[in-house]
């Protein structure tokens, strides 16, 4: 099939970007979206140009590297998939596709469609962990964890840190990301001792990174490739309020 | 500053803290609206009941009651506005660049209008206060209860105040936007207070919608029935009362 | 300098595995009891470079920082959380015996040795099995949400090559959950200041000073800057080399550069011909294809694998004249069930893969390219109902449909083997130190634990064992003999390597040819897949060894690297990696040619059982099965780089089995 691409090109972090138009010719329907870009890039390279840069790695939907907004929607309108899992058969002959980087002040563009998501790492470093020294762990079955709790923690833990939640949010809020990690660790008994400290520190770091606030539109859960529910945001709000109250009175 | 002060400052400075303020003041404002509407509906019971109710409000706790309530409502209202405007400014900054292809997946129209519906409501509230509370129109201010001329005739004021179709149209637009604001806002209160879960998600959305519709019908039925002539002031029909704000009664 | 135990860098090239003395089950305990220690106030004076942030590298960096060392950790991805360990699906083995089904450290050790077709080092494997217990404890404490029973205890499942249930899992995302646990521990240490993380930074060369690995030269993938980093020791945890085949289940960025550069600086490359081919991947659909997707092996529990009996039917399926459902039962060949009646569709990975290849070589393949076999669930659906199948494999079926556009509930899936894991890697001794003192190698990047074939759910175990528990205990053995901070980046060796790196980049940028980097990678990949893939012959390997230099020559004459080296340039990154893959492919083929036997993932067609062999006659194995030649090849091949264009030199570490008896692997 033949397509028209409107692609964001930006040569470096401080350069001014612009949308450029490319024709994608003879794209097989079986190709993935990123393979379509590979084909276009091969054409660009052979014509003496610089290929379109984009982040990608595992190409099976788990590493969280790929980060394109396709027609204004991070990853895809289809539920539960990343950009690398979008296949070209979903498009029609002659379609025009807009391809842009994830947009957020906290995710500055590095080049073309690549953005810097290291803010997420710093949020995890602030408190997204259970502080246990290697070797100091008790016997694995010493603490029983009910299946429901384990499953709920797991649902939150599936986050791949891709940043689609931020990119989809008109406020560029990272609440789904932070909520997912806080829920994962706060639900498990191993994570209880640091619960208050964790949410206070993670939220403080989130704010410091320049992410926006949640206005409960749930665009984040609609594009989350792991279909994490915005219920984790409610839980984060609750845990945060409880932590503030405890911090204030204790 | 003491430790508690520090905690409160950090709370207000944080994204979730401000949102909790918005949610708690939101609860107060919704409660006020429900009470206000219930009181208004006494208009259908007739002049005596409505005027009795107004008299009660003004003399509850020797007249202190209404001022306590007014102070509380104004404080909630102001906090609600300060916090939301501050959050909105942060949100705009967090998403400094926009998508060339801007779209949404599941955000409701009312959720996207929150700041605009909110700002309209502020304008409306100011108008409404001048209209019926301060009563800048001497024709409305001077109305006396025919049964007890020592007290103000709220019933007559309503009938007179809604004779102008332009005023009714303004009320219609404003209350509709208010209810749009609430249809997103009420459900958001539960989310921000951390009460939204997988089980409560649907009931909460329905509750928000139901309260909004109830308020819309309750508030708007009065001006609409008055302007269409269904609800009239039988005791003063003989008097010519073109009670319009801009046109003082001769 | 180094202690007696780790004096493996012997000038004449012979290899000392530094395995501690004593009975096998006591070796690790005794080792730890006698190992050197560094006192806590001195630890912070030592600096460590860790390259790679997957399970092995991330675990090592976090743990060494907890112990007090100054750690610098490097990864090419934008975050350590994206290392390819994240993609492992199945699970992690741990000999906990929670199921009370007779598991033990010994049994896990034995299964791993047998699964590896008796080509791994006994002492290392036993240590791995011992540590498997602590790993599970550690991960649970970190908050890894392993599957649980209703009562709250950890759940287990069984996996290929074992008769007990010892695999811990987190749905189909075990690797992700383990890596996130490890990544969180790493971020915690970054916040505390013990680890300095360098993301989007790729190691391009190793710096050896006075015979010791003392630093690396890296390229900042954002600015293009070439930088040196010095440390008291270097740890490589850079994963495997599966992408030498171009198409594999590895991530696009996985590469052999760090290991190959170390090899060129003196470290020996061990058993590079041992590569694992996974039987259940989605077949290639066209030239544009960039990577292969693995479908969990668990599908083989209920799916039946078949191809048409006649090549004619197969060709009609390929051209679309016939559908799978048009082929009557009697015209189908359920080849695994036919050849391995007792294991059937659950035969080990290498055997299943090879059988599929044979069927396709006979012209009976069913995918458009001719390379694919059916994995059919219709019997299971008829027997158990669609709902049960959906509950068991729903997400896998969905994934398959998304990729191929075909509904596996209606038509059988098509699968084909793909490169998945590489057992070979840099040679290391018991301390996980290579023959270059100070250079330690962990995880998939080393060769040590899986022999010629890796069992399912063992890769995660090894990565974490190396990172969390082995290297923290063995590193002081080397460091105790070193003066902390003895080498700085101002040493002439750093200047020299930096200059070489810059020169090579300039050379790549200057070629200015007409062909894309990918086209060379694809050409190389197809060659090695053909000649050094599932089946290998002397002729084929010699042919490959003749062709690889031609590819290299063409590459350096005609590759096109657009853009500039000062800034982000993904084509330049790829070009550097592909140039190294070309050099590595040569070593791999040399190894495959030299190993004149079949074992595990290495199948030399000349060495297979025939109807004449005793083992076949007495019913122990089938004609066509791999024939190991223990009398001649029971050793680790370790290859020394001798210069560009010069064949590498083979060194042998004999494998001595004291605790187990070598036997023919039979899954009949």
Tell me what you see in this structure.
- The complex is a heterotrimer of chains A (250), B (250) and C (668).
- With 250 residues, chain A is α+β, with helices and mostly antiparallel strands.
- Chain A folds into two domains: 3-111, Roll (Ubiquitin-like (UB roll)); 118-249, Fumarate Reductase Iron-sulfur Protein, Chain B, domain 2, CATH 1.10.1060.10.
- In chain A, 36% of the residues lie in helices and 12% in strands.
- Chain A has a five-stranded mixed β-sheet with strand order 2-1-5-3-4. Chain A has a two-stranded antiparallel ribbon with strand order 6-7.
- In chain A, a hairpin with an 8-residue loop joins strand 1 (3-9) and strand 2 (18-24).
- In chain A, helix 3 (147-157) runs antiparallel to helix 5 (175-187), helix 5 (175-187) runs antiparallel to helix 6 (195-208) and helix 6 packs across helix 8 (231-249).
- Chain A starts with a strand and ends with a helix.
- Chain B is mainly alpha-helical and 250 residues long.
- Chain B has one domain (16-91, 113-236): Up-down Bundle (3 helical TM bundles of succinate and fumarate reductases).
- Helix content of chain B is 69%, strand content 0%.
- The model of chain B is unreliable at 237-250 (pLDDT under 50).
- Chain C has 668 residues and is an alpha+beta fold.
- Among the domains of chain C are: 278-420, Succinate dehydrogenase/fumarate reductase flavoprotein, catalytic domain (Flavocytochrome C3, Chain A, domain 1); 492-630, Up-down Bundle (Methane Monooxygenase Hydroxylase, Chain G, domain 1).
- Chain C has helices at residues 27-34, 40-43, 55-67, 105-115, 122-142, 174-192, 257-264, 311-319, 335-339, 349-361, 378-384, 386-404, 459-479, 492-511, 517-532, 538-558, 570-594, 614-617, 630-633, and strands at residues 47-51, 70-74, 92-93, 157-158, 165-168, 195-198, 201-209, 212-220, 226-230, 233-236, 269-270, 275-281, 304-308, 332-333, 373-376, 413-422, 425-426, 439-441, 635-640, 649-654.
- The longest helix of chain C is centred in the last third of the chain and has 25 residues, at 570-594.
- Mean pLDDT of chain C is 93; it is low at 1-11.
- Chains A and B meet through helix 6, helix 7 and helix 8 of A and helix 1, helix 2, helix 4 and helix 9 of B.
């Amino acid at each position: 099939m033949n397509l028209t691409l409107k692609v964001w090109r930006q040569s470096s972090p401080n350069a001014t970007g612009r949308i450029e138009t490319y024709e994608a010719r003879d794209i097989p329907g079986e190709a993935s979206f990123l393979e379509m870009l590979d084909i276009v890039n091969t054409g660009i390279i052979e014509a003496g140009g610089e290929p379109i840069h984009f982040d990608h790695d595992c190409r099976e939907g788990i590493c969280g590297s790929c980060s394109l907004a396709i027609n204004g929607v991070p990853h895809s309108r289809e539920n539960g998939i990343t950009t690398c899992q979008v296949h070209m058969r979903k498009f029609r002959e002659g379609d025009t596709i807009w391809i842009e980087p994830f947009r957020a002040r906290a995710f500055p563009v590095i080049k073309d469609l690549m953005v810097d998501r290291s803010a997420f790492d710093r949020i995890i470093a602030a408190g997204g962990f259970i502080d246990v020294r290697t070797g100091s762990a008790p016997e694995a079955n010493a603490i029983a964890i009910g299946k429901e709790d384990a499953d709920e923690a797991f649902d939150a833990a599936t986050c791949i840190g891709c940043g689609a939640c931020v990119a989809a949010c008109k406020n560029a809020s990272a609440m789904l990301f932070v909520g997912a990690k806080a829920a994962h660790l706060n639900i498990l008994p191993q994570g209880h001792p640091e619960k208050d400290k964790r949410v206070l520190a993670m939220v403080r770091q989130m704010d410091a990174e320049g992410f926006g606030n949640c206005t409960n539109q749930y665009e984040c859960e609609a594009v989350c490739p792991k279909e994490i529910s915005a219920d984790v945001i409610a839980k984060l709000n609750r845990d945060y309020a409880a932590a503030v109250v405890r911090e204030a009175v204790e | 500053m003491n430790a508690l002060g520090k905690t409160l400052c950090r709370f207000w400075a944080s994204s979730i803290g401000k949102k909790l303020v918005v949610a708690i003041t939101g609860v107060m404002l919704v409660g006020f609206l429900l009470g206000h509407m219930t009181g208004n509906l006494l208009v259908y019971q007739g002049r005596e009941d409505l005027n009795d109710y107004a008299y009660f409000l003004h003399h509850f706790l020797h007249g202190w009651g209404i001022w306590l309530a007014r102070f509380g409502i104004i404080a909630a209202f102001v906090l609600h506005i300060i916090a939301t405007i501050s959050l909105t400014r942060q949100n705009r900054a967090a998403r400094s660049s926009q998508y060339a292809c801007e779209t949404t997946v599941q955000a409701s129209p009312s959720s996207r209008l929150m700041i605009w519906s909110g700002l309209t409501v502020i304008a409306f509230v100011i108008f409404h206060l001048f209209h019926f509370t301060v009563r800048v129109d001497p024709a409305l201010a001077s109305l006396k209860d025919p049964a007890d001329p020592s007290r103000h005739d709220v019933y007559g004021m309503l009938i007179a105040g809604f004779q102008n179709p332009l005023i009714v149209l303004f009320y219609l637009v404003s209350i509709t936007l208010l209810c749009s604001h609430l249809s997103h806002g009420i459900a958001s209160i539960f989310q921000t207070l951390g009460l939204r879960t997988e089980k409560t998600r649907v009931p909460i959305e329905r509750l928000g919608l139901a309260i909004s519709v109830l308020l819309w019908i309750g508030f708007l039925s009065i001006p609409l029935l008055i302007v269409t002539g269904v609800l009239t002031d039988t005791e003063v029909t003989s008097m010519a009362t073109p009670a319009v704000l801009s046109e003082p009664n001769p | 300098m180094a202690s007696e135990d780790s004096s493996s860098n012997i000038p004449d090239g012979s290899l000392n595995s530094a395995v501690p003395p004593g009975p096998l089950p006591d070796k690790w305990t005794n080792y730890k009891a006698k190992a050197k220690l560094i006192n806590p106030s001195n630890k912070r004076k030592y600096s460590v470079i860790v390259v790679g942030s997957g399970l092995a590298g991330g675990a090592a960096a976090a743990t060494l920082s907890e112990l007090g060392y100054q750690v610098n950790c490097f990864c090419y991805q934008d975050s350590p959380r994206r290392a390819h360990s994240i993609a492992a699906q199945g699970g992690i083995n741990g000999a906990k015996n929670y199921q009370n089904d007779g598991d033990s450290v010994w049994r896990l050790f034995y299964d791993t040795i047998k699964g590896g077709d008796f080509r791994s080092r006994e002492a290392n494997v036993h240590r791995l099995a011992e540590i498997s217990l602590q790993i599970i404890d550690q991960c649970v404490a970190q908050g890894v949400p392993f599957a649980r029973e209703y009562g709250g205890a950890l759940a287990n499942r069984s996996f290929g090559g074992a008769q007990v249930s010892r695999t811990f899992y987190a749905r189909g995302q075990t690797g992700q959950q383990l890596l996130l646990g490890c990544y969180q521990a790493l971020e915690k240490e970054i916040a505390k200041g013990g680890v300095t993380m360098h993301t989007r930074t790729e190691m391009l060369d190793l710096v050896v000073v006075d015979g010791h690995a003392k630093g690396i030269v890296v390229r900042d993938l954002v600015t293009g800057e070439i930088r040196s980093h010095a440390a008291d020791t270097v740890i490589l945890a850079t994963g495997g080399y599966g992408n030498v085949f171009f198409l594999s289940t590895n991530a696009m960025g996985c590469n052999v550069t760090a290991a190959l550069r170390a090899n060129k600086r003196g470290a020996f490359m061990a058993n590079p011909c041992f590569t694992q081919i996974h039987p259940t991947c989605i077949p290639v659909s066209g030239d544009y294809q960039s990577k292969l997707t693995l479908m969990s092996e668990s599908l083989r529990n209920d799916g039946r694998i078949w191809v048409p009996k006649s090549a004619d039917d197969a060709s009609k399926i390929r051209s679309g004249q016939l559908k799978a459902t048009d082929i009557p039962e009697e015209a189908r060949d359920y080849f695994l069930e036919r050849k391995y009646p007792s294991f059937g569709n659950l035969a080990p990975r290498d055997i299943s893969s090879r059988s599929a290849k044979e069927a396709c070589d006979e012209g009976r393949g069913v995918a458009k390219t001719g390379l694919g076999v059916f994995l059919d669930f219709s019997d299971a659906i008829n027997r158990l109902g669609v709902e049960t199948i959906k509950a068991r494999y729903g997400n896998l079926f969905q994934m398959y449909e998304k990729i191929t556009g075909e509904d596996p509930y209606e038509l059988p899936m098509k699968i084909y083997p793909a490169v998945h894991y590489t057992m070979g890697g840099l040679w290391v001794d018991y301390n996980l130190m290579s023959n270059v003192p100070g250079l330690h190698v962990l995880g998939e990047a080393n060769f040590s634990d899986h022999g010629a074939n890796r069992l399912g759910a063992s890769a995660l175990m090894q990565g974490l064992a190396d990172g969390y528990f082995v290297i923290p205990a063995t590193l002081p053995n080397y460091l105790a003999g070193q003066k902390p901070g003895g080498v700085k980046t101002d040493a002439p060796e750093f200047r020299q390597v930096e200059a070489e790196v810059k020169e090579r980049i300039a050379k790549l940028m200057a070629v200015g040819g007409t062909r894309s980097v990918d086209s060379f990678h694809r050409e190389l990949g197809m060659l090695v897949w053909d000649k050094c893939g599932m089946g290998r012959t002397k002729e084929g390997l010699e042919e490959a060894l003749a062709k690889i230099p031609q590819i290299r020559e063409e590459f350096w004459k005609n590759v096109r690297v657009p853009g500039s080296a000062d800034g982000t340039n993904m084509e330049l990154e790829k070009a550097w990696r592909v140039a190294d893959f070309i050099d590595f492919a040569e070593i791999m083929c040399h190894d495959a040619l030299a190993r004149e036997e079949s074992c595990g993932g290495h199948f030399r067609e000349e060495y297979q059982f025939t109807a004449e062999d005793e083992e076949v006659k007495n019913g122990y194995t089938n004609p066509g099965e791999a024939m190991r030649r223990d009398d001649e090849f029971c050793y680790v091949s370790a290859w020394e780089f001798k210069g560009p264009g010069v064949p590498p030199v083979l060194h042998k570490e004999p494998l001595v089995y004291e605790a187990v008896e070598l036997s023919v692997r039979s899954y009949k």
